[in-house]
TrEMBL record:
Residues 20-201 form the Class II aldolase/adducin N-terminal domain. This is Class II aldolase/adducin family protein. Belongs to the aldolase class II family. The lineage of its organism: Bacteria, Pseudomonadati, Pseudomonadota, Alphaproteobacteria, Sphingomonadales. NCBIfam families: PRK07044.1.
């Protein structure tokens, strides 16, 4: 059965759940201070459909995003859901290329400009294993040199090449792109990356950092992979933060 969103717009039960999760994610990012005025993006593939995804309406703040006002577009950036809102080209150009060429590993994608992550992206060494969270990502991040605002489709090929087999791409002098096959996994990666970058910035402000040896990083990542199975790839984290934003303002459900 279709769920009525607003006049002349309907969607499947699966799409409505995706809309709820994505709208909640926008509110969580905003609550955590990860929004950037009306810019930046979180996108999510529409379940059961080929090459369509949901993204924020351009011009709305993250705390104005709701399940029903998310824009449904295809990989060419065409509005296929009847939304009256436009989409920021810099959003769908980058996200669409990942969605189109990476399959389910890029079902959920975020791009942010938080101070800490942009600072690390702008540092010559990028993310260094100087803290617990940074060790999570050692040798698991790709880097892409800055080419200006990402509005040109031809840059997409280089973005994918520099991402490689990873799920995080640090756009140098710009900000990170984090992806996963599910929105929960994407969120918990972003949360840990943000913490890693915050702590690195604080650590380097004190002078020379103590870098964790590779053999210890290897053990850390091995044991962490076992522990993460208990958390359902971020499911517990995401649901906990959904409860938090729901207590503050549940309008994202509309």
């Amino acid at each position: 059965m279709a769920t009525q969103l607003k006049p002349n717009i309907e969607c499947s039960k699966e799409e409505w759940q995706a809309r709820l999760d994505l709208a909640a994610c926008y509110r969580i990012f905003d609550h955590l201070g990860w929004s950037e005025s009306i810019y930046n993006h979180i996108s999510l593939k529409v379940p059961g459909e080929k090459d369509t995804f949901l993204i924020n309406p351009f011009g709305l703040l993250y705390d104005e995003v709701t399940a029903s006002n998310l824009v449904k577009i295809d990989v060419e950036g065409n509005n296929v859901g009847g939304s009256p809102y436009m989409v920021n080209k810099a959003g769908f150009t980058q996200h669409a290329y990942f969605h189109k060429h990476l399959g389910e590993r890029a079902n959920a994608i975020c791009h942010v400009h938080t101070t800490a992550t942009m600072a690390v992206c702008s540092h010559k060494d990028g993310l260094v294993p100087t803290n617990f969270y940074a060790c999570n990502f050692q040798d698991q991040i790709g880097y892409h040199d800055f080419e200006g605002v990402t509005v040109r489709a031809e840059e997409g090929e280089r973005l994918v090449e520099n991402l490689g087999d990873h799920s995080i791409l640090m756009l140098r002098n710009h900000g990170p792109v984090v992806m996963d096959k599910g929105i929960q996994g994407m969120f918990v990666k972003m949360w840990a990356l943000q913490r890693a970058c915050e702590i690195q910035v604080a650590t380097l402000s004190q002078g020379e950092a103590n870098v964790v040896p590779q053999e210890v990083v290897d053990v850390h990542q091995r044991d962490l992979s076992v522990m993460q199975q208990q958390g359902g790839a971020g499911v517990f984290d995401f649901e906990a933060w959904k409860r938090r934003v729901d207590k503050i303002d549940d309008s994202w459900r509309k």
